[in-house]
Amino acid sequence: MLNFVLCDDNLNITNKLEQILETIFSNNNYDGKVVFKSDNADDILQYANSNEVDVLMLDIHLNSNKTGLELAEEIRKKRKNTYIIFTTGHLEYAMIAYKYKTFDYLPKPITYERLEGTIRRLFEDANELNKNYIKIDNKNTLIDEDEIQYIKKDGMKLVFHTSNCDYNTYSSFNKFQEKLPDNYIRCHKSYIANLNQIKKVEPVSNTITFNDDRTCEIGPNYKKDFMEVLKNYGIL
Predict the structure, then answer these.
(1) What is the pLDDT of residues 130-147, one digit of tens each?
(2) Nearest 5°: phi and psi at 153?
(3) Nearest CA among 142, 74, 69 for reference residue 102
(4) Please, what is the end-to-end C-alpha distance for the chain in angstroms?
(5) Which of 29, 76, 201, 211 is paired with 104 by a 20 to 30 Å CA distance?
(6) Domain ends where: 130, 156, 179?
(7) How many other CB atoms are there within 10 angstroms of residue 77's CB atom?
């Protein structure tokens, strides 16, 4: 899922933009969601400092202590991969906006057709070019690979567990293991662990604890190879 955050000093515009986005998501089977919106730059910055922000849509002229450009600059320092889309009625700022690795620039008033084109390109980019996202089904469901704690086999389903929620799809371990990065290691017949999300490993009890305190087992048939990988990875 791509998390969208919206900022405009006119809440009526923000609410309308959210409605248009939700319609675009629904009409195109895009796995996107507006997770936060505000007319205050500080609120947006505070949210972005402690939550995942995949797409930031913000007005350049904010009735706040920061302009949209200044807000984008602050967020870009911490979130290098966030897609930034500027919205404004002042066309003269278009070239300045691209300084902040801007994905697109939408002049107001924003139309459905113009925004839909931008969102379509954004999802195509996230799916095909940005290797930080994993597509798990044919409904354009995208998961940031860094957010996955582990992948669990549950009957005919695979469960992708993140700290925010679980994503389910019908597929096989082998299919996904081939396209996963090297930090995803099979540790059990029913689990693939993301080494970057491991908090601790207890070899005696054969238990892995992840950063969100969820756990999984280390299977006896996988333990030797898994422990060797952990040593090479610097976890043990």
Answers:
(1) 557 788 877 777 888 888
(2) -85, 125
(3) 69
(4) 32
(5) 29
(6) 130
(7) 8
